[in-house]
From TrEMBL:
Keywords: Metal-binding. Signal peptide: none annotated. The keyword Metal-binding applies. This is MBL fold metallo-hydrolase. The lineage of its organism: Bacteria, Pseudomonadati, Pseudomonadota, Betaproteobacteria, Nitrosomonadales. The keyword Metal-binding applies. It comes from Methylophilus glucosoxydans. Gene3D superfamilies: Ribonuclease Z/Hydroxyacylglutathione hydrolase-like.
Length: 234
């Protein structure tokens, strides 16, 4: 498999490129609108055709490149059916497998950060978006977030995987690029060790986080796959 991790510093977002070496078909997970030229260059460099842009959820902190890539490269946008993104070309739900060349991509429904969150399992690695971060997790106070549901999602759909499964998150704010299921089960500050569901809900209720800077722009844009609606001024 061809694999590349991109980092967008403004929102500390990780984007992933996964390509099939045989058919040269590729997917990208959680693209960022400002980075399109880098993605196109990487795809060209490896001789890859972009088939799907996969969203782990409707993001509140950056605008997806899905619509731009669809326009430039003909890729199709994949989102969970409850994500509220009617612009999606392929609406998926738990247990769906996408086959792209030799890549088998399993959709695991992991709501709680938002009600439309999914993780994508590809071989020995899982792309968790904002559901599970390295030593943390996504906030649960916006976009139909629900701490109890997030706890259940992570335990049932991520912590149930083999301990050496690689975890590639949607963000990291400290330069860490990858973790494992075993590490997060033991060490995650919010969920690791013996943290109970009730303790986790209590932790999440007391984070006192600031209102997300980009949310008012990013949410409507991402519900349209990144097509920014320009309002005419009077
Ligand atoms: Fe998010």
């Amino acid at each position: 498999m061809i694999f590349k991790q991109f980092f967008e510093p403004e929102s500390s977002t990780y984007t992933y490129l996964l390509g099939c070496e045989e058919t040269r078909q590729a997917v990208m997970i959680d693209t960022v609108g400002s980075e399109v030229d880098k993605y196109v260059a990487a795809l060209q460099q490896h001789g890859l055709t972009l088939v799907f842009t996969l969203e782990t959820h409707v993001h509140a902190d950056h605008v997806t490149a899905a619509a731009t890539l669809r326009e430039r490269l003909g890729s199709k946008s994949v989102v969970h059916r409850d994500a509220g993104a009617q612009c999606g070309d392929v609406l998926v739900t738990d247990g769906v497998h996408l086959q792209v060349g030799t890549l088998d991509i399993e959709v695991r429904y992991t709501p709680g950060h938002t009600n439309g969150c999914v993780s994508y399992l590809v071989g020995d690695r899982i792309f968790t978006g904002d559901a599970l971060l390295i030593d943390g997790c996504g906030r649960t106070d916006f976009q139909q977030g629900n701490a109890g549901q997030l706890y259940d999602s992570i335990h049932a759909k991520i912590f149930s995987l083999p301990e050496d499964t690689l975890i590639y998150p949607g963000h990291d704010y400290h330069g860490r690029t990858v973790s494992t299921v075993g590490h997060e089960k033991r060490e995650n500050k919010r969920l690791g060790g013996q943290t109970s569901r009730a303790e986790f809900i209590n932790i999440m209720a007391n984070l006192k986080l600031a209102y997300p800077k980009q949310i008012d722009v990013a949410l409507p844009a991402n519900q349209a796959c990144g097509q920014v609606v320009i309002k005419q001024s009077a």
